[in-house]
Amino acid sequence: MQTHAVVAFLVLALGTTQIHSTEWWENGNYYQIYPRSFRDTNGDGVGDLNGVTEKLQYLKDIGFTAAWLSPIFKSPMVDFGYDISDFYQIHPEYGTMEDFERMIARAKEVGIKIILDFVPNHSSDKSEWFINSVNGDPDYKDFYIWHDGKINEETGEREPPSNWISEFRYSAWEWNEVREQYYLHQFAVQQPDLNYRNPAVVEEMKRVLRFWLAKGVAGFRIDAVPYMFEVDLDRYNQYPDEPLSNDTTCPGSDDHCWTQHIYTQDLPETFDMIYQWRELVDDFHEEHGGDSRVLLTEAYTSFENMIKFYGDGVRNGSHVPFNFDFLSNINNVSTAHDYAEHIQKWINAMPAGVYANWVLGNHDNKRVASRFGVQRTDLINILLQTLPGHAVTYNGEELGMTDVYISWEDTVDPNACNADPDTYYDRSRDPARTPYQWDASENAGFTSGDQTWLPVSDEYKQINALQQMRAPQSHLQIFKKLVRLRKEPSFRQGAINIQALDDDILIYSRQKTGSELYVIVINLGGSDKTIDLTKYYSLGGQAEVITTSLQSKYIDGELVDPKAFVANAHVGTVLVAIN
Ligand code: GLC
Questions:
Q1: Given 173, 320, 434, 453, which is the most exposed site by the fewest CB atoms within 10 A?
Q2: Is the pTM of this model over 0.90?
Q3: Best mutation site among 72, 73, 79, 118 for ligand 1 pocket (most ligand atoms within 8 Å of CB)
Q4: Pairing state between β 390-394 and 29-33
Q5: Which residues form the Glycosyl hydrolase family 13 catalytic domain (predicted)?
Q6: Rounded to the nearest whole angstrom, what is the distance from the C-alpha of residue 161 to the centroid of ligand 1?
Q7: What phi, psi does 133 have (nearest 5°)?
Q8: Which domains does the chain show, CATH number per domain?
Q9: Within a 13 Å sphere around the CA of 52, how many CA atoms are in the beta-carbon half?
Q10: pLDDT value of position 19
Q11: Closest by Cα among 266, 319, 276, 277 to 118
Q12: What is the pLDDT confidence band of residue 17, given thresholds at 50, 70 and 90?
């Protein structure tokens, strides 16, 4: 065990130490709001913008820097807002443009930045652009990816142009009776892919960005980045088939995992597009002044690609290329070595002058407390808030909300609806999208109405914001303490010195020279362990508990002996050295 520990011992000099922290977005604490489920003010069972406005002070009180909102634009709601029919309008169920402007004004007053979701890959099939394209309008004819398909030599029948498969299952090509051609949709049939090889599309999407920037937003989270470009048809006579993945875990040939997406994902042009958008927000900032506008990018892709989204050394890219390690590569059986390895890998690979970031949850994945185990709720939040760089929290994770079971009959997520009763649950994103639990009143205080678009969790009487705000000890109290702690110089600019002691124990320090030494102890395992922390850090004779998981034997403010520190099962603790 000891040999392992010594080998794993690494001191990481952070890019952050070279930055003079003056910008609002640096070391930011970002909160994702799923507006449909956050707060409903008009009793229709669906969240709205006035609900967001009402709760901005709550976010400020916790200490968040910015809120990024899942799409609020006009939409038929096939993919709950990720199918946009008008990129310049507010979805009527969510409110009006005046409501939006009030939200922005209130956010400015309170001091929370508002970041919108920008969905560049596709529109809704109800968008005027698509309707015009179907009808062959010369201005829109090539706005989407259209193709005649191919004729099967044996049967003489027309078939889709290639074997490309949608993320939501089945062929990514759909026949259109009016235009008599196939169109590409990498997600739902009702989400046709825009054609980024058409300069008019690129120009239009830049207009969309400028439109919302002019309304006062602080930036964008960019959706489904890897899918923007497909292989250039001009280089081939046909769209080529993608090779089979031979992935033995893939359920079947209708599933996206059946093929390797070499012609439909991560094309080199994608990076250039992100760099162009970065230039756009920087130019806007230069022209209009005020605080910097930021880009957050959503790309489930290779590690190398994620890092490339930061920039290529010449051009800048995303301020926050979402790091999905804790969603894709770390789970409830990962060891402390796995954690240490993933954390080190990201920090070591970052270009100079940028920040790391850690995303623990979002509206596309099961909830943190359900994925890692309820008993690890605080431990995971302690980790998120004490690592260097940006922390990204999905609404409800600060309370330890858990997944809500939704039956096949009640399932509404298009990704799950395309499966069957035996397999839908794995694919379903509904369990993490249920209404936010505000208090113990009916429907968890989410709505004054008597129904909600997805069911409210049965646990709302025990797990809700009001109860946790009033309780002396709660997930929310711990979270608030951590958010404040992150503003300390050692967390903002300090190096991280991390190691795994065995499969269960992860320890790291955060310290800026001349500032306090903090030591974080994470016990992933199910049994208590006693550790001599002075072997690894200069903790002296006593250390103080800053905060710790609810079930810890220690309490905040307690003085402990670092030579015999007891890391309780599933407990995370932040200690500070006492000189
Ligand atoms: C992104 C969104 C997801 C959506 C998909 C298609 O991955 O986060 O919710 O279904 O893109 O827009």
A1: 453
A2: yes
A3: 79
A4: parallel
A5: 32-433
A6: 24
A7: -70, -45
A8: 27-121+199-233+266-480 (3.20.20.80), 122-193+234-265 (3.90.400.10)
A9: 34
A10: 45
A11: 277
A12: very low
